Amino acid sequence: MIRLLNVSTMPPGTGQPILKNLTLTVPQGEFRWLLGPSGAGKSSLLRLLTLETPPSAGQMEILGISIGRGASKGTSRAALRNLRRRIGFVPQDYRLIGDWTVFDNVALPLRLRGASERDTRREAFAVLEWLDVAHLADKRPGSLSGGEQQRAAIARALIGRPELLLADEPTNALEDAQARRLLGTFQELVDMGTTVIVATHNEALVREAPARSIIVRDGTLTADPQIQDSFAIRPSGEQS
Amino acid sequence: MSAPVSPGLRSGSLPLLVALMTLLAGLALAGLTGVQTLARSWASAARNDTTIEIASDTPRLEERLQSLAEALHKVPSVTAVRVLSPSQVQTLLAPWLGNGSSDTGSQKDPLPGLSLPVVLIVAHAGTSDLGALVHATLPEAIVEEDRRWGTRLNGLGSSLVACAWLAVGLIVAIAVISIGMTVRRSVMAQRKAVEIVHFLGAGDLTISSTIAGRAGLLSFSGAITGLVFLSPVLSILARKLAPFSHSYATTIHTEAKGLLAGFWTTLDVLPQGLLEQLASLPLIAACLGWMTAQTVVLVWLRRLP
């Protein structure tokens, strides 16, 4: 469950809030598209939900943990650390560690949770194989194409089945078939109780998998013009 | 290789920096040991003796000398009165006047044209002010309390030891600051990677321990390198200073031996305490590197939400 109540964020040193007075509830195990024009505040909202940016005003609750103004001031660092381990995030810029292999990047969330190396290896290769990048496990991210890096970032977010999955334009470097496959995975995660929020500009993708949307404009939320009650992937070629 | 859960420390300059600091610290410790040895020898030399000098042309010298000796023996704290022989006086004054042996061929003869004074050494328990008593009998006598020189030498020795400790402390402080700056530079260079693992849920201690472990290892290897470079310097210094040392009976004979053999002989001559201190430098450097890196990284991580 995600609950925001009058939340604003203001980056340090700037007098202007990026997100203004957001009030939002996303129940556990639901899917939301995060839509809006460029610069509207979609990535800022995702950074707020991944606890990278603390709220400057208001209250929010993520997966049962209340977070107040200043984030770490209201909640202990240990609680924030444990909360971050329950969240999977696919950043727009992938954020892979360049000195590490793809395998080590993908395995990191499980290692941080203290999983055994055997389980980590098994799960990491399972998700890498599913995303068709297992053969790149020993490569450094710098030697991969944009699409391969994106798949590695997706693998890192999916490993260990997070309770909350946030993705920022996760399909912009993927082929259509891969994008549809990824949406199928999101569906499976939602079915297993994961809350999934995906920011995208890909209107075709949204049309293919209609669902309730969070629409951001100028740092504020606007009403969802076309509320959908379900999240379902339509067969290829079918138009909404 | 263990599975990575945090970026490590990337710094090529840290081992070099620690090696240089180890070199300096080793030299400071060697200096400290030398000064401590000197101060101890000064302290032991500072006896409670009084030296009385009487010019040889003093009227009725024999008779008045006899009276003085009797008067001194009556003082309860005086334990012994000894009149130095002319040869002993000459030996005593040799540093200032020369012993004349090269000129005259005889050590027993006083220097030509020079009349040696009569010198009395009075040993006492340390509380007597003998000056008044001596001057009552022999106003011309010069009375010198060795104790006063002893106190001055003790003070000088303590000051030199304090200066040497200060030098060691300054080197440690500079090492800590330098390691801290190097670690901080490395963290800033890997800022993106550190932020990634932080936002994926890595604990502050997990990140700081990974970096600190590497810093400790690099500091240890740097200190070992520093010791390797320090050894020949100490070896050369020990050889140069050996003739001045009264504490160690061992004489260094390196002329007929190779450099390596000479080096080991020199190590044998160095005081045990100094060798132990030098051997502990890599461990101390590793601990300093580890603790400094931990502190720097933990403080830096506090700025992340």
From TrEMBL, chain A:
Cross-referenced Pfam families: ABC_tran (PF00005)
Keywords of the record: ATP-binding, Cell cycle, Cell division, Nucleotide-binding
Membrane in keyword set: no
Top-level division of the source organism's lineage: Bacteria
Gene3D superfamilies for the chain: P-loop containing nucleotide triphosphate hydrolases (3.40.50.300)
Domain ABC transporter: 2-239
Entry keyword annotation includes Ligase: no
GO CC terms: plasma membrane
Protein name: Cell division ATP-binding protein FtsE
Species, as recorded: Gluconobacter kanchanaburiensis NBRC 103587
TrEMBL record, chain B:
Keywords: Cell membrane, Membrane, Transmembrane, Transmembrane helix
Membrane-topology descriptor: Multi-pass membrane protein
Pfam family, one: FtsX
Residues spanning the membrane: 164-183, 217-238, 279-301
Signal sequence region: none
Stretches assigned to the ABC3 transporter permease C-terminal domain: 166-265
Protein name according to UniProt: ABC3 transporter permease C-terminal domain-containing protein
Upper taxonomic lineage: Bacteria, Pseudomonadati, Pseudomonadota, Alphaproteobacteria, Acetobacterales
